[in-house]
Amino acid sequence: MTLTVYLSGEIHTTWRDEIRKGAADNELDVKFTSPVTDHAASDAAGDHLGAETDSFWRDHKSSKVNAIRTKALIQEADLLVIRFGDKYKQWNAAFDAGYCAALSKPYITLHAEDIVHPLKEVDAMALAWARTTDQVVEILKYVERP
Amino acid sequence: MTLTVYLSGEIHTTWRDEIRKGAADNELDVKFTSPVTDHAASDAAGDHLGAETDSFWRDHKSSKVNAIRTKALIQEADLLVIRFGDKYKQWNAAFDAGYCAALSKPYITLHAEDIVHPLKEVDAMALAWARTTDQVVEILKYVERP
Amino acid sequence: MTLTVYLSGEIHTTWRDEIRKGAADNELDVKFTSPVTDHAASDAAGDHLGAETDSFWRDHKSSKVNAIRTKALIQEADLLVIRFGDKYKQWNAAFDAGYCAALSKPYITLHAEDIVHPLKEVDAMALAWARTTDQVVEILKYVERP
Amino acid sequence: MTLTVYLSGEIHTTWRDEIRKGAADNELDVKFTSPVTDHAASDAAGDHLGAETDSFWRDHKSSKVNAIRTKALIQEADLLVIRFGDKYKQWNAAFDAGYCAALSKPYITLHAEDIVHPLKEVDAMALAWARTTDQVVEILKYVERP
Amino acid sequence: MTLTVYLSGEIHTTWRDEIRKGAADNELDVKFTSPVTDHAASDAAGDHLGAETDSFWRDHKSSKVNAIRTKALIQEADLLVIRFGDKYKQWNAAFDAGYCAALSKPYITLHAEDIVHPLKEVDAMALAWARTTDQVVEILKYVERP
Amino acid sequence: MTLTVYLSGEIHTTWRDEIRKGAADNELDVKFTSPVTDHAASDAAGDHLGAETDSFWRDHKSSKVNAIRTKALIQEADLLVIRFGDKYKQWNAAFDAGYCAALSKPYITLHAEDIVHPLKEVDAMALAWARTTDQVVEILKYVERP
Amino acid sequence: MTLTVYLSGEIHTTWRDEIRKGAADNELDVKFTSPVTDHAASDAAGDHLGAETDSFWRDHKSSKVNAIRTKALIQEADLLVIRFGDKYKQWNAAFDAGYCAALSKPYITLHAEDIVHPLKEVDAMALAWARTTDQVVEILKYVERP
Amino acid sequence: MTLTVYLSGEIHTTWRDEIRKGAADNELDVKFTSPVTDHAASDAAGDHLGAETDSFWRDHKSSKVNAIRTKALIQEADLLVIRFGDKYKQWNAAFDAGYCAALSKPYITLHAEDIVHPLKEVDAMALAWARTTDQVVEILKYVERP
Fold it and tell me: What is the pTM of this model?
């Protein structure tokens, strides 16, 4: 089975690369997708549609241009890994989790132990909670067993 | 039209009471529902099912008992108001927003201006962003015009 | 059977009143709903959420506040009557028709003969085309036969 | 990601060619689809099924033969671009927008500034509004970033 | 439980009355609905929308006006009884059965033994096959046991 | 576009071959599927699962084994052609039409003019009615225009 | 909130009565539904439709008559309690759990500790696991908090 | 047609190999998938996510990691074969059957005659009941007829 895995959430650390490398090292038949992870580019995704004086509308336009990509990729994914780091609000990651829960799209969370309590609703609907990218790769290895 | 409105999110301020009072003062035909808003009770919702030594599982059980109530109420709601305050992570509120977005269930957000940027994905799929509970009541008045 | 009928489209003539009166005269068990039909109020539906300098965003906010009402009412309707008059673009009426078609929600159109050609895609998915409000009332009478 | 984009709406200008060319110039992995854009052929799509004396039924048959193609292509599209020009009623374009909105199928609109007001309900559910075909190509470039 | 039962199919015998009487005699909490069973009225359901010279279009219009009623009633039914008699083609009854099968809406068939073979696909997806109206009433009594 | 077309209904004439030949002659990018059209084999599809003394159950088992194939093929089809001939009850063809109608799966009917009246409900939800296989091929040619 | 709770599974002990009594003692606004729990009647539910010589078909007919009731009640339930006792195979209870999981219908399980391992897939998708009927009542009390 | 068939249930006998061999011997265009059938590995699927002192949670984690694989494979299957052997509770197999029933995903059961009675609800929604793997292969041969 070719598994399509969407990597949602934190964009400031190397977790996506670690998972991609782990999958490659194990020669797993997994295709990874993700949102645009260049923070500045993501915030500016709608700028070419016209300048805004109100930052709410600038954000609004960029979020929706990003949604064109993310909605399509989430639809075609078999599984999501949703990463919560130790900085920022990361409400978009929790939003993706809720979106998946409503669609019965399986997801696993990746986060440290100290944020277990605020993530309890998100974890409750996840199929697994991983603390490390190695654990995510282990899950993928298991899912891909012949 | 009797409108059923689910009030999701922050549980430490009086925003729910303000909206209920505003609707009552205007004699609106609106029925409000909400999660259990007693924080301690909510955290302990699963405790009677057996003690846990690992706090992850305690949270897990309580989240799911809460989900019995919240899933049923969200299903029957015509509209959600999702409140983000200035404290805590509030990932459950963003989770509810994503859940609604996937089900095409309309929601509006209620939050201050200083968190517009981190909420941009959540606001992008909302039908309105209100800064005050008065604005929410105004929306309900409009929706309920004869 | 109590039939819930949503009256969509043109807001500048008395067609809604004619249908309501015809149903009342025939003592039909029909409940009618509609968008807010006060044009100025509808355009201003989002104004209380804050002034906009760009008219695109003013329209955007008002459209979405209106959508809170219209989406809920369309969901609960058994049937829509969608009216196209001889003025204005009326793209919102065609939008409602497409929305219903995708959801397999039955609708009938009400319009004069001279706009049959541009409405051909809209009429193709309708369950009836009526030229007069009397014809709509006749349909309702038939649907409500004991 | 191979993105499948359905180009809906106006058939009397070169906007589809401009977008196709822009995508080709940028070597984007995008597959474009569209309705039959030969106006006379589209109006005559049902003629071979038997002549009609009433133009309503001629239109009816042709619209439905066209729907065989358009429904299949819209189903398989990841994104729609819906174009509104300055001529004709174009209710079919607004119908497609409503159809997509109900199915949570992402679409962007392409139209000039002077028809913002009558398109407000259509734009309210779009993920972007573009004024030029270059802006559409920019969106596709962004969505297709590696 | 109040059970809503739609009685589909044959309109030339008294089977609907027998079932209604059986349910009343047993004081069952069942609400029965049905299409318009006056054959001439049903065929003429669209006539008031304008005369047609081609009988195909007359049938077409009447079928769709009937569909306004039947689609709404099938949607709200918990169960259908679909009756096949010994006359006529009765393709509309088989159509209703297929419609229910696709929606996972439960239905039972009511027909004599000599048409078991041509009805095999219809019966295969039914929850029961009854030969007599008494058997249908027995099923309703069982379903309504306290 | 590769169009997948399921050919449902009558199995005693050469209509399927005529359509396949017409598509081949026109080099159309169409893939045709169909139920098992060997009548004896179809009736015996469940026989190897054990003999039945009651012909109802023999039919029942064979219908369901056939449904494994037909349900899968209808799901993956973009379009159905449903053929009604002049013999037999053909309730399975009307059943397929209803099944498609409920799933918003497009279908066209193929039948002679003398059975227009009993097929009115089936035709009402079809996207076209063809009298000849040539007309079906013409539709496919149109749908497949570049 | 009036909560509708379907009580699925074991029919040889008094667990349903205990839950009903617990809810009544606490004056909870809960409506309970269940399959027919008279074992002999349930096995004979299809007998009046004609005798069968093969017990497979007798079971088949009765199961389907039971399904008329159970499918309707599960559809209208907000929550299921699914009970596994210490006797019999109880595959129907696990079947109901899978049915709910696919429909995102919330359920809780009620069973002793010694069958945790064979029920692990069923429990994994449940919102709670209760060991006693008192625990079920506690959950209902929590869900029904004002 | 390439048929994708998921083989669910019993993991202690060679039934999967027999069906694979039968399909290969007949050169059928069938792709088989299955859960991880190594019992010890399956029970330990979540162990690498952290040790658990309570066996309920160990089972819980492993079941969910398994669900990542099984949910994805069931979604993409055209047909399931669900096997019940003579040992163990096998509630997971009945759970899969219920899951399929709710999604209208076709399945056939494979089991001996002596467990017909407890499997009656599961068999009632199946498209076939086979006693031997040869019978399953016969079904696949029939479904795959050209």
Answer: 0.97
